[in-house]
UniProtKB/TrEMBL annotation, chains A, B:
Pathway: Amino-acid biosynthesis; L-methionine biosynthesis via de novo pathway; L-homoserine from L-aspartate: step 2/3; Amino-acid biosynthesis; L-lysine biosynthesis via DAP pathway; (S)-tetrahydrodipicolinate from L-aspartate: step 2/4; Amino-acid biosynthesis; L-threonine biosynthesis; L-threonine from L-aspartate: step 2/5. Its EC number is 1.2.1.11. This is Aspartate-semialdehyde dehydrogenase. PROSITE patterns: ASD. NCBIfam families: asd_B, PRK14874.1. It catalyses: L-aspartate 4-semialdehyde + phosphate + NADP(+) = 4-phospho-L-aspartate + NADPH + H(+). SMART domains: Semialdhyde_dh. It comes from Shouchella xiaoxiensis. Substrate binds at residues 158, 244. Belongs to the aspartate-semialdehyde dehydrogenase family. It holds the Pfam family Semialdhyde_dh. The gene is asd. NADP(+) binds at residues 14-17, 42-43, 161-162, 183, 325.
Length: 349, 349
């Protein structure tokens, strides 16, 4: 990292991810010259502490980005679509945590452990992938590098905080209501903007985001398309089933994958994972050691365990991948992108 | 069904499954001449109501089975191993809900919608498959019949009641403790008899039953081996990842499967499911219609939705399968076997 310090803006500072971005910037001692906390009009005026200083949240408007070097966006797709072009025009490099620009061919979609070099191609906007995509590609990349990758089938176990603080509150209210024998209200999940809402407490809901024409949800198509883009593998076979569960924070994934080269031992795969950046291997069945939400939340790494051979195909494997969806899935990956931009001298280019 | 009535015994009458067996026998108006409720010494003496009569639970001993025509066992593998030979010796036909005899080549492993005819080969014992296996084979069988089946990869979302009433209570206690900010105790899950115990509330635990030498859990191997046996397909490729979740009752499954014949439309697959015995198709994305635990519990059917084509392999499909693990997964399938035995005149043979 060079010795400069940067003017940083956080858009969506009062949200679940925005809060984690601030915590992560502080922990990582990101070189901040000035900090702007931005939000919707509704949240403007709130006060937030950062490194002992109190900041007042301001409404995000185009002029907010004058003199900003790097802006981290996590305030929803429509905010990103409206304000990122304005911020870029004013010289800010934007790291966007929404899906607004992810599939734009001029926008790098970056997980630093996988494709940091793509940052060199940025033209002002870098997209942060979907939470469930990030943790999967971090775990699969070291294996892809050694053995190649042919097919991925993932079933997710996703936490409600991925749908925002309203969803977390809804789950808590519903859980209390059920334990007290009271009626349950559902107004947020599975998708705020969809027609119907279902109980999440003590339930499993196989819908995250809206359904697409092909029967997959948008969340599932994000995992499919983003994985191919990040890995630069349009030919990679990817399928996903995304499921929301009564868990506050922390996504888990059951992943079946086929490599190009078969016959590699589980021990060798475990070694690739143990050596990989951003991965913690937790895999010892005889000690009941495997990743869980309860042991992963609050940590930046992606945790991998339950690695085993498919019993039928000698290029088939199974693994269980867990990470904090608000950290590596969002805030930490965004801050990591900002750190890479600094390291590669790509801010203000 | 013929006009006879039978002397019925329930072993494990006070347990989670035993209770559902009684409820199901009553609902189905199974032709009962006499009913014996049996249990461990510890639970003997308890009183249970059935069709308006109060029964006193007796300790299960070999002599309990004199004159019994059909005995439904759900009191753990060691009880089944000890008492089923004694019951068979005394002329009772035993339907066993434990894993004790499932892989015995002389014991039919039966899901009536799939392999009812195997009952003809019984020599006194019929095994009821594992809960997570049953709902999967009911959903896949109609597709197998039309298109053949090559490979199945399943990730499960399993409820705590599959681990018994103690596990349900543990989840409730932990949930209350977390909501009240109190410390969490874990003494039952993931496996009563294993070394370590983990929090299940607001967590996902990728271990059900003990780990085997090959890195799979026994629950996963049950799904693999039992599916092949029930479908009479030793060559079928099956892999499973079994996960326990904070859900009281109702298992969900995300299933990827490859058929022999490719290119069939989703509409045709949906029609096969809609026409199949024991299956309710719930599959309309535009109306957010898909199976969930909250809408499936308390019902005997297997609910299937989210049917879609794999985007890469033209013989690949995905589906979401939900059922009540205490009903079709246990009690209802056992009673259904008893009904089939009556129908086929195989009791007292």
């Amino acid at each position: 990292m060079n010795k400069h310090a940067y003017n940083v803006a956080i858009v969506g500072a009062t949200g679940a991810v925005g809060q984690q971005m601030l915590k992560t910037l502080e922990e990582r001692e990101f070189p901040i010259a000035s900090l702007k906390l931005l939000s919707s009009k509704r949240s403007a005026g709130k006060q937030i502490e950062f490194k002992g200083t109190t900041y007042t949240v301001e409404e995000a408007v185009p002029e907010s980005f004058a003199d900003v070097n790097v802006a981290l966006f996590s305030a929803g797709g429509s905010v990103s679509k409206a304000l990122i072009p304005e911020a870029v025009k004013r010289g800010a490099v934007c790291v966007d945590n929404t899906s607004a620009f992810r599939m734009d061919e001029n926008v790098p979609l970056v997980v630093p452990e996988v494709n940091e070099a793509d940052l060199h191609n940025h033209t002002g906007v870098i997209a942060n992938p979907n939470c469930s995509t990030i943790q999967m590609v971090v775990a699969l990349e070291p294996i892809r590098q050694e053995l190649g990758l042919k097919k991925v089938v993932v079933s997710t176990y996703q936490a409600v905080s991925g749908a925002g603080l309203d969803a977390v509150e809804e789950m808590e209210h519903q859980t209390k209501a059920i334990l007290n024998g009271e009626p349950v209200k559902a107004e947020v999940l599975p998708v705020g903007g969809d027609k119907k809402h279902y109980q999440i407490a003590f339930n499993a809901v196989p819908q995250i985001d809206l359904f697409q024409e092909n029967g997959y949800t948008f969340e599932e198509m994000k995992m499919i398309n983003e994985t191919k883009k990040i890995m630069h593998m349009p030919e990679l076979e990817v399928a996903a089933t995304c499921v929301r569960l009564p868990i506050e924070t922390g996504h888990s994934e059951s992943v079946y994958f086929e490599t190009n080269k078969g016959g590699t031992s589980v021990t060798d795969i475990q070694q690739m994972l143990a050596d990989a950046p951003g991965v913690t291997l937790q895999d010892n069945p005889s000690e009941q050691l495997y990743p869980m939400v309860t042991t992963s939340v609050g940590k930046n790494d992606v945790f991998v365990g339950r690695v085993r051979r498919d019993l039928d195909r000698d290029n088939g494997y199974h693994a269980w991948i867990v990470s904090d969806n608000l950290l590596k899935g969002a805030a930490w990956n965004s801050v990591q992108i900002a750190e890479s931009l600094v390291k590669l001298n790509l801010l203000g280019k």
